[in-house]
Design goal:
This protein has 15 helices and 16 strands. By secondary structure, the chain is of the alpha/beta class. It folds into 2 domains: 232 residues, Rossmann fold, CATH 3.40.50; 176 residues, Nucleotidyltransferase, domain 5 (2-Layer Sandwich), CATH 3.30.420.280. A 9-stranded mixed β-sheet has the order 3-4-2-5-6-1-9-7-8. Helix 1 runs parallel beside helix 2 and helix 13 crosses helix 15. It is elongated, with a radius of gyration of 24 Å.
Amino acid sequence: MTEPDEKEPPRPPLAHPGPQTQFMESDSDIAIYGGQAGGGKTWALLAEALRHIDKPQFGAVIFRRTSPQITNEGGLWDESATLYPQYKGVSKHTLDWRFPKGTNIGFRHLQYENDKLAWQGAQIAMLGFDELTHFTESQFFYLLSRNRSICGIKPYVRATTNPTPADDPVGGWVNRLITWWIDRSTGLAIPERSGRQRWFIRRQGELIWSDSKRDLIERYGRPDLPENHEDQTAQPKSLTFIAAKLSDNPTLLKQDPSYRANLLALPDVERQRLAEGNWNAKVQAGLFFKVAKIEIVAALPAALRYCRAWDLAATDGAGDWTVGAKLGVDTDGVFYIADIQRGQWESSYRDRVIRQTSALDGQCQIRLPQDPAAAGKSEARRLVVMLAGHDVKSVVVSGDKPTRATGLASQTNVGNVKMLAAPWNHGLLQRLDAFPTRGVSDDEIDALADAFHELTSKKKLVVGI
């Protein structure tokens, strides 16, 4: 480890005027910065963590839901390296930055619900969440109980987020939490409320809100006692929501003028969320994949780079389907759905199908899903060994299905995906059109999305969000 220069800590980088500055100057206990993609939200969260590094014993922890979201190319760790250049992180493995005064900024994940319990007894002066709607309500409020400080800095929470509808099973609670700041008829942030502070307490499982801290104390607490007295029965927390817009981030617009075009090319629902900041936008069948834009071709081009990704099941004649989706891409970035293998097979027969298909595919990357649990890792290793001699890898799959399929849908909806004429076309087109309808099989979409990610991860054909 390279020791940092102890002469002078780095000063927090300057934020853009407007929402970024408002977020970093907020005195609310909880500040949520959200809306359109590209507004500089993650940058502001990382920069905020620098403000108190000259304070002994100050510590900040910034969470993402999964570890790959931290360490992926261009993720939190890489972006922190552009903001913390004067200091050497312990390593990418430990995901910590240490500073001369004994302060620490760390990056952690909460992939599973009970991962929150690992933080019992922790004291986190600055608690950060990048993409808050990926976390459950119970994870957030449990970690809020760890938001305490002995370093002289008032403990506080900062979070960034993109819009998610109120009925989303994981992140819909964020939509409901900030409902006062959102126009329910349009789903867009109310400009004059952005950055305004409100107060809440919890009573019988419900949050009770007011524009005044004193009002909540007088209604539910002990008005005769000081606000922070140990016997005070009402301890309101302050919260603000700050709306983010791409136009607030001139640095990104200058460095990547095509970024807005990438957002506008997204499927309708993702475009409404990420390009417009719409909290009402919901994924509906017929809107996610515009299947009429998929051209059916009689033959495939000669020179394609292929990946076949598998989505695995192991029940004979029932339950989920095992699917192997073969996707190709040419040098111009046009994608071709080349083949679908699909069946409800028990595991031994399924393995024979996978081996046979791999032999027939020839030069083709093979991607297998890996469950992060120990049993899943063991099964993935077994399958990789079974396919020895082929170009095969196993990948931990995370994220909800629509998010995983967004890149493929973006290319589909601009007419950049074609399909080889075959008997399986009709069923696949029906299921693409129905996606993501509950009860309709989506195994093919999962497999195609994984193949798409594999092909685009090696060559930047598609710019991500």
